[in-house]
Amino acid sequence: MKNNAGDIKILYPLSLKELGNLCEEFPDALLFAGGTQLMRTIKEDPRCLISLNAIRELTRIRRKENYIEIGSCVTLSRILSLGENVVPIALYKAISAAVGPSIRNTATIGGNICTISHISDLIAPLVLYDARVELRTLSGIHWLPLLRFIQTHEKTGIVAGETLLVIRIPLEEWDMQTFIKTDIIHSPKLSVLKCAAAVRTNKNSINDLRLVFGGISPIVLRSRELEGILIGDKLPLQKKSIDLFCSELTKLLETKKEDFLPHPYHFGTAIRFTRYFLSSLNTG
Ligand SMILES: Cc1cc2nc3c(=O)[nH]c(=O)nc-3n(C[C@H](O)[C@H](O)[C@H](O)COP(=O)(O)OP(=O)(O)OC[C@H]3O[C@@H](n4cnc5c(N)ncnc54)[C@H](O)[C@@H]3O)c2cc1C
Q: What are the structural domains of the chain?
Protein backbone atom coordinates (compact mmCIF):
# COMPACT_ATOMS: atom_id res chain seq x y z
CA MET A 1 0.00 0.00 0.00
CA LYS A 2 1.31 3.51 -0.66
CA ASN A 3 0.31 7.10 -0.28
CA ASN A 4 1.92 10.27 -1.60
CA ALA A 5 1.73 13.29 0.69
CA GLY A 6 3.20 16.07 -1.45
CA ASP A 7 6.53 14.71 -2.60
CA ILE A 8 6.89 12.36 0.36
CA LYS A 9 6.19 8.75 -0.42
CA ILE A 10 4.59 6.92 2.51
CA LEU A 11 4.55 3.13 2.37
CA TYR A 12 2.42 0.79 4.49
CA PRO A 13 3.77 -2.80 4.37
CA LEU A 14 1.36 -5.41 5.75
CA SER A 15 3.95 -8.06 6.66
CA LEU A 16 7.58 -8.33 7.70
CA LYS A 17 8.34 -9.85 4.31
CA GLU A 18 6.89 -6.84 2.55
CA LEU A 19 8.81 -4.56 4.91
CA GLY A 20 12.04 -6.37 4.03
CA ASN A 21 11.39 -5.90 0.31
CA LEU A 22 10.61 -2.20 0.76
CA CYS A 23 13.73 -1.64 2.90
CA GLU A 24 15.78 -3.14 0.06
CA GLU A 25 14.02 -1.06 -2.57
CA PHE A 26 14.20 2.18 -0.54
CA PRO A 27 17.35 1.89 1.61
CA ASP A 28 17.13 5.56 2.71
CA ALA A 29 13.49 5.32 3.84
CA LEU A 30 12.74 6.31 7.44
CA LEU A 31 10.71 3.90 9.54
CA PHE A 32 8.07 5.21 11.89
CA ALA A 33 5.43 3.83 14.25
CA GLY A 34 3.36 6.45 16.12
CA GLY A 35 5.37 9.29 14.58
CA THR A 36 5.13 11.38 17.79
CA GLN A 37 8.90 11.60 18.24
CA LEU A 38 9.82 11.57 14.56
CA MET A 39 7.56 14.54 13.78
CA ARG A 40 9.18 16.73 16.38
CA THR A 41 12.79 15.90 15.60
CA ILE A 42 12.88 15.55 11.85
CA LYS A 43 14.99 18.31 10.29
CA GLU A 44 14.18 18.03 6.60
CA ASP A 45 11.38 16.29 4.72
CA PRO A 46 12.31 12.67 4.03
CA ARG A 47 11.75 11.38 0.50
CA CYS A 48 10.24 8.15 1.74
CA LEU A 49 8.63 7.00 4.99
CA ILE A 50 7.68 3.45 5.91
CA SER A 51 4.91 2.99 8.46
CA LEU A 52 5.22 -0.09 10.66
CA ASN A 53 1.70 0.13 12.07
CA ALA A 54 -0.07 -2.16 9.61
CA ILE A 55 2.29 -5.10 10.26
CA ARG A 56 0.25 -7.42 12.40
CA GLU A 57 3.24 -9.21 14.01
CA LEU A 58 4.34 -5.88 15.49
CA THR A 59 1.05 -5.09 17.23
CA ARG A 60 0.68 -8.37 19.13
CA ILE A 61 0.96 -8.94 22.86
CA ARG A 62 1.72 -12.50 24.02
CA ARG A 63 1.61 -13.37 27.69
CA LYS A 64 3.36 -16.52 28.91
CA GLU A 65 3.92 -17.79 32.43
CA ASN A 66 7.39 -16.26 32.80
CA TYR A 67 7.39 -13.37 30.39
CA ILE A 68 5.33 -11.00 28.32
CA GLU A 69 6.18 -10.20 24.70
CA ILE A 70 5.07 -6.86 23.36
CA GLY A 71 5.26 -6.02 19.65
CA SER A 72 7.22 -2.85 18.95
CA CYS A 73 4.13 -1.06 17.54
CA VAL A 74 1.94 -1.60 20.58
CA THR A 75 0.86 1.80 21.91
CA LEU A 76 1.60 2.98 25.42
CA SER A 77 -2.17 3.21 26.15
CA ARG A 78 -2.63 -0.43 25.24
CA ILE A 79 0.16 -1.48 27.57
CA LEU A 80 -1.38 0.53 30.43
CA SER A 81 -4.76 -1.04 29.73
CA LEU A 82 -3.28 -4.45 30.64
CA GLY A 83 -3.19 -3.16 34.23
CA GLU A 84 -0.70 -3.08 37.08
CA ASN A 85 -1.17 -6.77 37.79
CA VAL A 86 0.27 -7.66 34.39
CA VAL A 87 2.69 -4.85 33.56
CA PRO A 88 5.69 -4.79 35.93
CA ILE A 89 5.20 -1.86 38.29
CA ALA A 90 8.28 0.26 37.47
CA LEU A 91 7.38 0.09 33.77
CA TYR A 92 3.74 0.90 34.48
CA LYS A 93 4.79 3.95 36.51
CA ALA A 94 7.22 5.09 33.77
CA ILE A 95 4.54 4.89 31.07
CA SER A 96 2.00 6.72 33.25
CA ALA A 97 4.52 9.52 33.88
CA ALA A 98 5.94 9.71 30.34
CA VAL A 99 3.32 11.41 28.19
CA GLY A 100 -0.29 12.56 28.46
CA PRO A 101 -3.21 10.33 27.33
CA SER A 102 -3.51 11.85 23.85
CA ILE A 103 0.11 11.07 22.92
CA ARG A 104 -0.05 7.70 24.71
CA ASN A 105 -2.77 6.62 22.26
CA THR A 106 -0.32 6.95 19.36
CA ALA A 107 3.17 6.61 20.85
CA THR A 108 4.59 3.08 20.82
CA ILE A 109 6.97 1.14 23.03
CA GLY A 110 9.27 0.43 20.06
CA GLY A 111 9.37 4.12 19.08
CA ASN A 112 10.28 5.02 22.64
CA ILE A 113 13.19 2.56 22.69
CA CYS A 114 14.39 3.41 19.17
CA THR A 115 14.54 7.10 20.06
CA ILE A 116 17.62 5.93 22.04
CA SER A 117 18.08 9.16 23.99
CA HIS A 118 17.65 10.70 27.43
CA ILE A 119 14.03 11.42 26.37
CA SER A 120 13.07 7.73 26.40
CA ASP A 121 11.55 7.08 29.83
CA LEU A 122 10.85 3.40 29.23
CA ILE A 123 14.47 2.35 28.80
CA ALA A 124 15.47 2.42 32.51
CA PRO A 125 12.57 0.26 33.76
CA LEU A 126 12.94 -2.16 30.84
CA VAL A 127 16.66 -2.56 31.61
CA LEU A 128 15.70 -3.08 35.28
CA TYR A 129 13.65 -6.13 34.30
CA ASP A 130 16.38 -7.49 31.98
CA ALA A 131 14.17 -7.03 28.92
CA ARG A 132 15.42 -8.45 25.64
CA VAL A 133 14.67 -7.18 22.16
CA GLU A 134 14.19 -8.98 18.89
CA LEU A 135 15.91 -7.09 16.13
CA ARG A 136 15.81 -7.56 12.41
CA THR A 137 19.06 -6.48 10.79
CA LEU A 138 20.50 -6.98 7.33
CA SER A 139 22.12 -10.18 8.62
CA GLY A 140 18.91 -11.72 9.97
CA ILE A 141 16.73 -11.79 13.06
CA HIS A 142 18.28 -12.07 16.52
CA TRP A 143 17.58 -11.45 20.19
CA LEU A 144 19.78 -9.36 22.44
CA PRO A 145 19.57 -7.81 25.90
CA LEU A 146 18.07 -4.32 25.74
CA LEU A 147 21.03 -2.94 27.71
CA ARG A 148 23.43 -4.19 25.03
CA PHE A 149 21.19 -2.79 22.28
CA ILE A 150 21.26 0.62 23.99
CA GLN A 151 25.02 0.51 24.60
CA THR A 152 25.79 -0.41 21.01
CA HIS A 153 23.31 2.03 19.47
CA GLU A 154 23.75 5.00 21.78
CA LYS A 155 26.25 6.71 19.50
CA THR A 156 24.93 5.60 16.13
CA GLY A 157 21.16 5.56 16.67
CA ILE A 158 19.10 2.92 14.89
CA VAL A 159 20.93 1.83 11.75
CA ALA A 160 19.28 1.84 8.30
CA GLY A 161 17.78 -1.56 7.58
CA GLU A 162 17.28 -2.39 11.28
CA THR A 163 13.83 -2.92 12.75
CA LEU A 164 12.92 -3.54 16.36
CA LEU A 165 10.30 -6.28 16.30
CA VAL A 166 9.42 -7.43 19.80
CA ILE A 167 10.29 -6.62 23.42
CA ARG A 168 10.32 -9.56 25.86
CA ILE A 169 9.96 -8.68 29.53
CA PRO A 170 10.51 -11.40 32.15
CA LEU A 171 7.69 -11.57 34.72
CA GLU A 172 9.14 -12.16 38.18
CA GLU A 173 7.96 -11.75 41.77
CA TRP A 174 9.39 -8.65 43.47
CA ASP A 175 8.88 -7.46 47.03
CA MET A 176 9.37 -3.81 46.04
CA GLN A 177 9.63 -2.11 42.66
CA THR A 178 9.52 1.54 41.80
CA PHE A 179 10.34 4.26 39.26
CA ILE A 180 10.78 8.01 39.60
CA LYS A 181 11.50 10.72 37.08
CA THR A 182 12.66 14.23 37.98
CA ASP A 183 12.18 17.42 35.98
CA ILE A 184 14.62 18.11 33.15
CA ILE A 185 17.08 20.91 33.90
CA HIS A 186 18.15 22.80 30.78
CA SER A 187 20.81 25.17 32.10
CA PRO A 188 23.78 25.49 32.42
CA LYS A 189 23.83 22.01 30.84
CA LEU A 190 21.01 19.63 29.94
CA SER A 191 20.45 17.19 32.82
CA VAL A 192 17.83 14.51 33.59
CA LEU A 193 17.44 11.77 36.16
CA LYS A 194 15.30 8.66 36.21
CA CYS A 195 15.64 5.93 38.84
CA ALA A 196 14.24 2.41 38.67
CA ALA A 197 14.69 -0.10 41.48
CA ALA A 198 13.49 -3.56 42.44
CA VAL A 199 14.26 -5.96 45.25
CA ARG A 200 13.38 -9.55 46.08
CA THR A 201 13.92 -11.15 49.46
CA ASN A 202 14.00 -14.76 50.52
CA LYS A 203 13.77 -15.86 54.16
CA ASN A 204 14.32 -12.27 55.20
CA SER A 205 17.54 -11.73 53.28
CA ILE A 206 18.16 -9.91 50.01
CA ASN A 207 18.01 -12.33 47.12
CA ASP A 208 18.09 -9.90 44.19
CA LEU A 209 18.57 -6.14 44.10
CA ARG A 210 18.50 -4.04 40.95
CA LEU A 211 19.05 -0.34 40.40
CA VAL A 212 19.05 1.47 37.08
CA PHE A 213 19.60 5.18 36.58
CA GLY A 214 18.70 7.17 33.48
CA GLY A 215 20.76 10.23 32.56
CA ILE A 216 22.26 11.98 29.56
CA SER A 217 25.31 9.92 28.53
CA PRO A 218 25.29 7.01 29.00
CA ILE A 219 21.49 6.97 28.68
CA VAL A 220 21.29 4.29 31.37
CA LEU A 221 23.68 3.18 34.04
CA ARG A 222 23.48 -0.19 35.78
CA SER A 223 26.27 -1.84 37.75
CA ARG A 224 25.94 -5.53 38.63
CA GLU A 225 28.93 -5.13 40.93
CA LEU A 226 27.15 -2.45 42.92
CA GLU A 227 23.90 -4.45 43.00
CA GLY A 228 25.83 -7.45 44.36
CA ILE A 229 27.05 -5.61 47.48
CA LEU A 230 23.90 -6.27 49.50
CA ILE A 231 22.98 -9.71 48.15
CA GLY A 232 22.63 -12.10 51.08
CA ASP A 233 22.30 -9.31 53.69
CA LYS A 234 19.59 -9.87 56.28
CA LEU A 235 16.74 -7.44 56.88
CA PRO A 236 16.58 -5.04 58.61
CA LEU A 237 19.59 -3.61 56.78
CA GLN A 238 22.24 -2.13 59.05
CA LYS A 239 22.90 1.60 58.68
CA LYS A 240 26.56 0.86 57.92
CA SER A 241 25.55 -1.45 55.01
CA ILE A 242 23.36 1.28 53.53
CA ASP A 243 26.18 3.83 54.03
CA LEU A 244 28.67 1.53 52.30
CA PHE A 245 26.29 0.97 49.39
CA CYS A 246 25.63 4.70 48.98
CA SER A 247 29.33 5.53 49.17
CA GLU A 248 30.09 2.98 46.40
CA LEU A 249 27.25 4.47 44.35
CA THR A 250 28.67 7.96 44.88
CA LYS A 251 32.08 6.79 43.63
CA LEU A 252 30.48 5.19 40.58
CA LEU A 253 28.43 8.27 39.74
CA GLU A 254 31.47 10.50 40.26
CA THR A 255 33.34 8.67 37.50
CA LYS A 256 30.49 9.55 35.10
CA LYS A 257 29.27 12.80 36.66
CA GLU A 258 30.00 15.40 34.01
CA ASP A 259 28.26 13.61 31.16
CA PHE A 260 25.76 11.40 32.96
CA LEU A 261 24.15 13.59 35.64
CA PRO A 262 25.58 17.06 34.97
CA HIS A 263 23.40 18.88 37.51
CA PRO A 264 24.29 18.53 41.23
CA TYR A 265 20.57 18.31 42.11
CA HIS A 266 20.21 15.16 39.97
CA PHE A 267 23.46 13.73 41.32
CA GLY A 268 22.28 14.22 44.92
CA THR A 269 18.76 12.94 44.16
CA ALA A 270 20.13 9.67 42.75
CA ILE A 271 21.88 9.02 46.06
CA ARG A 272 18.91 10.19 48.19
CA PHE A 273 16.57 7.97 46.18
CA THR A 274 18.83 4.96 46.75
CA ARG A 275 19.14 5.60 50.50
CA TYR A 276 15.37 6.02 50.76
CA PHE A 277 14.68 2.85 48.75
CA LEU A 278 17.07 0.76 50.86
CA SER A 279 15.82 2.22 54.15
CA SER A 280 12.22 1.52 53.18
CA LEU A 281 13.06 -2.20 53.01
CA ASN A 282 13.34 -2.07 56.79
CA THR A 283 9.88 -0.65 57.22
CA GLY A 284 8.10 -3.04 54.93
C1 LIG B 1 4.85 16.59 23.46
C2 LIG B 1 5.64 15.33 23.60
C3 LIG B 1 6.17 15.01 24.84
C4 LIG B 1 6.90 13.83 25.01
N5 LIG B 1 7.37 13.52 26.26
C6 LIG B 1 7.98 12.32 26.45
C7 LIG B 1 8.37 11.92 27.76
O8 LIG B 1 8.18 12.63 28.74
N9 LIG B 1 8.95 10.71 27.90
C10 LIG B 1 9.18 9.88 26.85
O11 LIG B 1 9.70 8.78 27.06
N12 LIG B 1 8.84 10.25 25.60
C13 LIG B 1 8.26 11.44 25.38
N14 LIG B 1 7.90 11.84 24.11
C15 LIG B 1 8.45 11.10 22.96
C16 LIG B 1 7.56 10.06 22.29
O17 LIG B 1 6.22 10.39 22.33
C18 LIG B 1 7.70 8.70 22.89
O19 LIG B 1 9.06 8.42 23.11
C20 LIG B 1 7.06 7.64 21.98
O21 LIG B 1 7.02 6.42 22.71
C22 LIG B 1 7.72 7.44 20.65
O23 LIG B 1 6.95 6.46 19.96
P24 LIG B 1 6.47 6.64 18.45
O25 LIG B 1 5.82 5.37 18.08
O26 LIG B 1 5.67 7.88 18.28
O27 LIG B 1 7.90 6.81 17.74
P28 LIG B 1 8.18 7.36 16.28
O29 LIG B 1 8.15 8.86 16.33
O30 LIG B 1 7.36 6.69 15.26
O31 LIG B 1 9.69 6.88 16.09
C32 LIG B 1 10.74 7.35 16.92
C33 LIG B 1 12.07 6.88 16.32
O34 LIG B 1 12.18 5.47 16.38
C35 LIG B 1 12.26 4.88 15.06
N36 LIG B 1 11.42 3.68 15.15
C37 LIG B 1 10.15 3.61 15.64
N38 LIG B 1 9.74 2.33 15.69
C39 LIG B 1 10.76 1.58 15.23
C40 LIG B 1 10.96 0.17 15.06
N41 LIG B 1 10.03 -0.74 15.40
N42 LIG B 1 12.14 -0.26 14.55
C43 LIG B 1 13.10 0.62 14.22
N44 LIG B 1 12.99 1.97 14.36
C45 LIG B 1 11.84 2.44 14.87
C46 LIG B 1 11.81 5.95 14.10
O47 LIG B 1 12.48 5.83 12.87
C48 LIG B 1 12.22 7.22 14.84
O49 LIG B 1 13.58 7.49 14.62
C50 LIG B 1 7.16 13.00 23.90
C51 LIG B 1 6.63 13.34 22.66
C52 LIG B 1 5.88 14.49 22.49
C53 LIG B 1 5.33 14.81 21.15
A: 2-51 (3.30.43), 56-170 (3.30.465.10), 176-283 (3.30.390.50)
